[in-house]
């Protein structure tokens, strides 16, 4: 029986953590001297650490705690489901009610004829499913060579071998032999950093047309699918020009290439609609979902698949699945999350209250000498830091140093705001109030001021 609890002194918890706990995306040795932050509890948009600091979480954990922390209904539903049916699998011709109900709910919510759901335990797993599913789809249609998948540089689709290969982050590819063969990356629609003298609209079209060039280079008969996040999240909240997605969809349809929208961050209200695909007016063949599906209260992901693809996959034995595909407790928690979103008219709150307040806060920060642009889609946003606004210049210091400094000042001011390179990213719980957004803005400005002072 473990005697380790919140009541131990923070230093003792930190030492135990450093001795035994390997953290994701972390140089663990650095934590030995620095000491990891230990989060004890959370309520609404605030985290409390073991030193009693109340930290405003402007990242909703990892872009996922959309309902905010500490919703008792979610715990009650999980406990009820654990007592009734804690586990059964969905292999071998069996199912259970939470799995049936969640699949139906997702089919009803998704646009177009995305009527079929394959469950996974996470976004990475769901994207691995997609990779195998699109290749299997074309193989079943007698075209096994139509197997290449095109993605974008600086995309994030997970960190397993399949999903990490689909992603376009070179620092991930450098470890463990990625990308696996048959995956290609074209340029991202990041006008601020890469658009040069082009207008946003022209740049959006130019980047979309890289897809057509890549399809023609590989031969359309060899290309299975294109995958993209409606708004790149982990890449820095890169909001594509309005011309980008319609052109991508046109090219996919013209060349008979399946379109996968990775909605792991964008799904469930984050961009102001149920799905980012709706915000950008496209209808993909497959959508990846996770994170906001359960507001992060339980690990669950899924691929939502249209009639065309499901017809082929359902006719064969797709030899794929996870022990926890459609886990009944996770499915029940996800259903409760969606019920609360409907009951509380979350989309109305985002569109009419939270997003306008966030926009005001961001606009007010634009006068800060370090702030180049602010960008926002619904409740995901970013602040580009720059030494020179007009030329959209990058800092001379290694990319990310200034962003890292700003992130550390945020922590010191009890604010969680992440950095991606020298872009600060924001994705608070969707339930955040205008008053809480004011707290965010005050703490963010303090962090920016302190960063600016350090640079002098
Ligand atoms: N896809 C996107 C767009 C993501 O942002 C993430 C995680 O951040 C993933 C996939 C991977 O999801 P998970 O961490 O649940 O495996």
Automatic annotation (TrEMBL):
The UniProt record lists the keyword Transferase: yes
One Pfam family from the record: Aminotran_3
Keywords assigned: Aminotransferase, Pyridoxal phosphate, Transferase
CDD domains, per the entry: OAT_like (cd00610)
MF-aspect GO terms: pyridoxal phosphate binding; transaminase activity
GO CC terms of this entry: cytosol
Domain of life: Bacteria
Cofactors named for this entry: pyridoxal 5'-phosphate
UniProt keyword Metal-binding, yes or no: no
NCBIfam families: PRK07480.1 (NF005682)
Family to which this protein belongs: Belongs to the class-III pyridoxal-phosphate-dependent aminotransferase family.
Record protein name field: Aspartate aminotransferase family protein
């Amino acid at each position: 029986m473990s005697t380790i609890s919140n009541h131990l002194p923070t230093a003792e918890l930190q030492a135990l953590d450093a001795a035994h706990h390997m953290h994701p995306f972390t140089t663990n040795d650095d934590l030995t001297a620095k000491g990891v932050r230990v989060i004890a509890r959370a309520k609404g948009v605030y985290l409390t650490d073991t030193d009693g600091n109340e930290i405003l979480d402007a990242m909703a954990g990892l872009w996922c705690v959309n309902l905010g922390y500490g919703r008792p209904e979610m715990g009650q539903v999980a406990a009820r489901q654990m007592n009734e049916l804690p586990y059964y699998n969905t292999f071998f011709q069996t199912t259970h009610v939470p799995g049936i109900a969640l699949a139906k709910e997702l089919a009803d919510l998704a646009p177009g004829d995305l009527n079929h759901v394959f469950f996974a335990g996470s976004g990475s797993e769901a994207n691995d499913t997609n990779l195998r599913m699109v290749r299997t789809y074309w193989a079943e249609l007698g075209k096994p060579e139509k197997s290449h998948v095109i993605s974008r540089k600086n995309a994030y689709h997970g960190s397993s071998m399949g999903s990490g290969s689909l992603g376009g982050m070179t620092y991930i590819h450098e470890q463990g032999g990625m990308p696996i063969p048959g995956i290609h990356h074209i340029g991202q629609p990041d006008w601020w950093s890469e658009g040069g003298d082009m207008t946003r609209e022209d740049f959006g079209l130019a980047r979309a047309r890289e897809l057509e060039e890549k399809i023609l280079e590989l031969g359309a008969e060899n290309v299975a699918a294109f995958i993209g996040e409606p708004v790149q999240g982990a890449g820095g909240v890169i909001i594509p020009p309005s011309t980008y997605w319609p052109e991508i969809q046109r090219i996919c349809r013209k060349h008979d290439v399946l379109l996968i929208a990775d909605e792991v961050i964008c799904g469930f209200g984050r961009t102001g609609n149920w799905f980012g695909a709706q915000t950008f007016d496209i209808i993909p063949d497959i959508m990846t979902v996770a994170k906001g599906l359960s507001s992060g209260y339980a690990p669950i992901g899924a691929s939502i698949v249209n009639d065309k693809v499901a017809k082929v996959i359902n006719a064969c034995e797709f030899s794929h699945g996870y022990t926890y595909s459609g886990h009944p407790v996770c499915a029940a928690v996800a259903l409760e999350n969606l019920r609360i979103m409907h009951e509380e008219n979350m989309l109305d709150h985002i569109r009419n209250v939270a997003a306008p307040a966030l926009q005001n806060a961001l606009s007010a920060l634009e006068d800060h000498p370090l702030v180049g642009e602010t960008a926002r889609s619904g409740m995901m946003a970013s602040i580009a830091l720059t030494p020179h606004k007009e030329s959209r210049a990058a800092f001379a210091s290694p990319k990310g140093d200034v962003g890292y400094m700003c992130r550390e000042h945020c922590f010191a001011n009890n604010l969680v705001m992440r950095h991606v390179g020298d872009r600060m990213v924001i994705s608070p719980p969707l339930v955040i109030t205008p008053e809480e957004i004011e707290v965010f803005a005050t703490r963010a400005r303090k962090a920016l001021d302190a960063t600016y002072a350090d640079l002098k």
